[in-house]
Design goal:
Blueprint: H1 7-10, H2 21-33, H3 39-47, H4 60-71, H5 77-91, H6 101-108, H7 113-126, H8 130-137, H9 147-157, H10 171-179, H11 186-199, H12 201-210, H13 213-229, H14 233-244, H15 250-261, H16 271-281, H17 285-290, H18 304-315
Helix pairs in contact: 5-6, 5-7, 7-8, 8-10, 9-10, 9-11, 11-12, 11-13, 12-13, 13-14, 13-15, 15-16
Length: 327
Amino acid sequence: MIEIKDFKQVFNLPPDHSYSEHLHNEIIKNRRILDNKLFFDRLVGVLQVKTSNLYPPRTINDLKELHKRIVSSPIALINKHCLLFYLLKDLTPSIHSENEIAATFARAVHLPNKFWTFLEGLWALDRLQFQTATEFLTHPSLLPTFPEEILDVLLKHAGAAGSGRGKDEALALAYYHTVQPPLKSEEVRERFFAYLADRSVTNAFYFARARPQDEQRRLLELLISQTLQSFSGEKRAERGVELVDLPLNVEEEEWLEEFLLEGKGRNLHGARDTVMMRRIATGKLKEAVRDGGVKGRKFDDVNWEVVKDGIGRGLGPRKEEETFVML
């Protein structure tokens, strides 16, 4: 068993070996990318270990001071083991990696596998190794820790929302479905919802409907906004059709019309067109015929006036009757 208060027993390093300038700069760079907060920073913050500006350490003396603050902190022994393991992970790639010093330390202090797995995941996140991080952090043995923060990092940096990282783009979805973070943070919730809407209007709609009632209207409005303004060309047309075909209930239908006709969505491209298409698709033909707010350019000699005229002739005297809805 290692005596963790003995620096030399924990950091079994060659003489004068510490964090290289390259490693130090890489960690600082990654911290900036991750909104100036690594998951190591979150760990020491939660544990209230006063590391000051010692991480990443520049010199062997900085590392010794960081070690001293960790082992002298009034926290559980296993938490000290976790923080020391993380630091040893930093140094592993540059020291006889065939006998990985972090793994050797973990075995020597009998670090439970679930803690080991969790720390491997956090360390990989801090190194922007998102695929590896997700594999560790979705392990079934783990209790969710920092779940929304982890999801947010994946959303912003692992290929989500058009960052172009290819295969990493689906990691946020995989993490969400496995861990089921509660999404209490409005910012993270809306970022994840925008990510879902970018992938599928229909799936985003059912996600919104499953959320607590006080969130649903806001999410539906976000879905409408993103569908009408975040795409162009054929993709916009496809998403528009998907939006029009959503199985909205009466209350959701009212939210859509209020948002697009009277609310903040009224200036969105195709706002009134979307309402008109919904009315026709759902059989609200009298409202469609009487809507004087849509005209539009002609396409192949057809615009909304032509369409409304055709519907009106088809309805005949029924135009004056109460609205009927096709089921």
